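Appendix B. Raw example, untouched.
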Amino acid sequence: ALPISPRQQARRDIEQFALLQAAQVQALQHIGRSRKIMTDAQFAVARYQASNPRLDGAIAARLAMQGIAPAAAGGVSWRWDPRAQMVWSTFSHEDSEALLRQITCATCVITGSEGLDYWLLMHPELAGQQRLYEQELARRVALIAGAKSIVLKGAGHMVHYDAPDAFSQAVLDFLSASNPH
C-alpha cells in the first residue's frame, strides 16, 4: 500500500468523525422516544432502591417520588431526560483525563469504599475487581494536581446519602484547610 499524505489522513479522520456524530445523533433521537414507562410509583421506588441498594429506604422513596412524573399513556416515568446519559459517550477517556489535568483549583474527591457495587449493576464483568477499581480511581484522582482523596468506609455510590455526617465533615474539613481565614 502506498503511504497516504497528511491531507488524505485528515480527510479520512473527518469522514470517520462525521459517521460517529451521525450515529450519536441517531442514538439521542432513539433515547428520546424510548423513555421507559413504569406501572406506578411503587415500582419506581423499588427500581430506584434496586439501583442504589445501600441507600436508606426512606431516602430512596423520597428521591424516587421527586424524580417521577405521570406518563401520558398511564403509569409514571423518570423526570430526568435519559439523553443526559449520552454525555458519557461524547468524550473519550483520553479527553476526560485531559480535562482533569486542567483543573488547577483546590479539589477534594470524596468516594465511598463500596462505590463499585453501583457500577456492578451495569458492568457485572467488574465483579471481584475491587483492587483494580481502587487503583483506577487513585490514578484518575492523581490527574488533578494536588487533589485530596477521601474514601468514606461503608458508603456506596451515593456517598452524600449513605454517610451524610461523614461526608459533611469531610467537606467542612477540606474547606477549612483550603481557606484558613
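End of appendix B.
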